[in-house]
Design goal:
Mitochondrial transcription termination factor; transit peptide; 160 residues; elongated; MTERF; mainly alpha; 10 helices
Length: 160
């Protein structure tokens, strides 16, 4: 963050103002993260990423709401956004608006986390060990360290 401030104080100030206009509270920690993302993203790159999210079916307001929840979603590349969206929305039937309510999912590694967990979810669903109430998003968000024990205990806990 300090590097961005030192490199171009004017750009940093503009980023702070834009982040405030988007609705971030300067008293909250995510304000710093949002300012960093905004300051380190060129205007044209920001517009391009906004267009990528719009091509996936989201409005500008939905994208900004996702940015307010998880600022790093705007630091993800098109090569990250499109495959994750394609898998979750097109192939897995994930609700697009629900995905934008959990934008941190775009930070997960597709081949190491998202695809394997989607496979586990489908297997559990097909065996009747989990129903759609659990939600695939919850399975994606469970931390790596506890995922195996959480998934193995689902039937015993009655969370299925």
């Amino acid at each position: 963050m300090l590097r961005i401030l030192m490199r171009n104080p004017k750009r940093f100030k503009e980023s702070v103002e834009r982040v405030k206009r988007i609705g971030f509270n300067p008293q909250k920690t995510n304000f710093l993260e949002a300012t960093y993302v905004m300051a380190s993203t060129a205007t044209e790159t920001w517009k391009h990423k906004m267009e990528v999210y719009k091509r996936c079916g989201w409005s500008e307001e939905e994208v900004l709401a996702a940015f307010r929840r998880f600022p790093k979603c705007m630091s993800r590349s098109e090569n990250k956004i499109l495959p994750v969206t394609d898998l979750l929305v097109q192939k897995m039937g994930f609700d697009p608006s629900a995905l934008m309510k959990r934008p941190q999912i775009f930070s997960f590694i597709l081949k190491k986390r998202i695809i394997p967990r989607c496979s586990v979810y489908q297997a559990l669903l097909s065996k009747g060990l989990v129903n759609k109430k659990l939600g695939m998003a919850q399975m994606l968000e469970v931390p790596e360290k506890v995922f195996p024990s959480e998934v193995c205990q689902l039937p015993q806990r009655g969370r299925c």
